[in-house]
């Protein structure tokens, strides 16, 4: 039996930041695999009885988590993850569609470092859903320091949110190699073109890539060491081993598996994705300097 309350599922960095933000206006429950000392922490069963769920677990874990734990009972769901499943090449909205009807689900996108949200610093986010009613239901839960926008371009927001993580790795590599600000700006601008081209193939709108979900989140993530993906890129440029980089990071960097997913999709559908492909090759051991040479070829 579901009740009228709200729960965040996943108490990692983003789950905790959203819990903090939404708790400014109402009581919000939170749950995670391991018990954490957070106000209103509950077990998963209690969380799943809430009408409004915000799910903030890594993209690669979602399918198995849904299979093992989720029973649809009329809940309204906001997905806070950003990534593409590498094993299948499926977008998160495709994975969720087997578990939650489209009118009951939305996807959060836009520039939003958890650390800043947890400090109550202002930002603007997009709730992407086929249902404007769902946006109207979730939007009032957000605090005054977060402005929410509505978009029906779910696939565009998903591609943008996932792709910018791969480009943030590339941008971190660029800084790690000391290639300069011209190179970094060129990379980010061409990255934006690349992700829009990729998104267009799957039916995204161009305007999504020019707004908060696209340029907004890309400029944020590809310009700051606050980004985990950017830090992965920095480590790769310094020839650090990926395993060591991830141990040091201690949190998820979605761009790693998403690079693999984009690479596979680009081959399958013959989409031109040079930067994402080079990131994927670097993650597989190619030298970042050789990738640079290949990207600069006429
Ligand atoms: N951190 C940010 O600033 C931020 C902002 C926007 C979006 N996101 C996205 O949110 C998602 C989560 O990121 P995060 O920052 O919270 O990562 P994190 O590494 O801090 O936390 C991930 C959480 O997921 C849980 N988890 C992992 N595997 C699980 C499984 N199989 N079943 C249940 N729970 C599992 C972990 O226990 C942990 O609590 C990612 O897709 C990320 O791209 C993060
Ligand atoms: O730290 P990152 O690289 O996972 O990026 C976090 C958010 O997606 C920024 O909007």
Automatic annotation (TrEMBL):
Kindly list the positions annotated as binding sn-glycerol 3-phosphate.
82, 110, 112, 164, 217, 227-229
Q: Where in the cell is it found?
A: Cytoplasm
The highest taxon in the source lineage is: Bacteria
Q: Which residues bind substrate?
A: 82, 228-229
EC number(s) stated in the UniProt entry for this protein: 1.1.1.94
Q: Name one Pfam family in it.
A: NAD_Gly3P_dh_C
Q: Which GO terms describe its biological process?
A: carbohydrate metabolic process; glycerol-3-phosphate biosynthetic process; glycerol-3-phosphate catabolic process; glycerophospholipid metabolic process; phospholipid biosynthetic process
Residues annotated as binding NAD(+): 10-15, 114, 228
Q: Where NADPH is bound, by residue?
A: 14, 33, 82, 114, 228, 252, 254
Family of this protein: Belongs to the NAD-dependent glycerol-3-phosphate dehydrogenase family.
Domain Glycerol-3-phosphate dehydrogenase NAD-dependent N-terminal intervals? 35-133
What broad class describes the main subcellular location of this protein?
cytoplasm
Spell out the protein name for this chain: Glycerol-3-phosphate dehydrogenase [NAD(P)+]
Q: What function is annotated for this protein? A: Catalyzes the reduction of the glycolytic intermediate dihydroxyacetone phosphate (DHAP) to sn-glycerol 3-phosphate (G3P), the key precursor for phospholipid synthesis.
- Catalytic residues? 164 (proton acceptor)
Instruction: State the Gene Ontology terms under molecular function.
Output: glycerol-3-phosphate dehydrogenase (NAD+) activity; glycerol-3-phosphate dehydrogenase (NADP+) activity; NAD binding
One GO cellular component term noted in the UniProt record for this chain = cytosol
């Amino acid at each position: 039996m579901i009740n009228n309350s709200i729960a965040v599922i996943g108490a990692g960095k983003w789950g905790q930041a959203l819990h903090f933000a939404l708790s400014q206006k109402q009581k919000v429950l939170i749950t995670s695999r391991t018990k954490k000392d957070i106000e209103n922490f509950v077990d998963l069963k209690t969380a799943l009885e809430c009408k409004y769920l915000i799910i903030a677990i890594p993209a690669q874990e979602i399918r198995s988590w849904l299979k093992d734990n989720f029973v649809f009972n009329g809940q309204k769901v906001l997905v806070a993850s950003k990534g593409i499943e590498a094993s299948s090449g499926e977008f998160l909205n495709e994975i969720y569609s087997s578990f939650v009807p489209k009118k009951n689900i939305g996807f959060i996108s836009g520039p939003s470092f958890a650390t800043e949200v947890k400090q109550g610093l202002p930002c603007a986010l997009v709730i992407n859903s086929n249902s404007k009613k769902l946006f109207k239901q979730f939007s009032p839960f957000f605090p005054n320091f977060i402005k929410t926008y509505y978009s029906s371009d779910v696939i565009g927001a998903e591609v943008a949110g996932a792709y910018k993580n791969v480009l943030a790795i590339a941008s971190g590599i660029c800084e790690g190699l000391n290639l300069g600000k011209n190179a970094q700006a060129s990379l980010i601008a061409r990255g934006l073109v690349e992700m829009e081209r990729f998104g267009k193939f799957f039916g995204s709108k161009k305007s999504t890539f020019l707004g908060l979900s696209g340029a907004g989140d890309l400029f944020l993530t590809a310009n700051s060491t606050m980004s985990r993906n950017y830090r992965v890129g920095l480590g790769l440029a310094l020839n650090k081993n990926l395993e060591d980089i991830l141990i040091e990071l201690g949190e998820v960097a979605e761009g790693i598996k998403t690079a693999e997913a984009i690479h596979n999709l680009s081959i399958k559908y013959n989409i031109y994705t040079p930067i994402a492909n080079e990131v994927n090759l670097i993650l597989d051991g190619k030298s970042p300097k050789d990738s640079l040479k290949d990207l600069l070829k006429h």
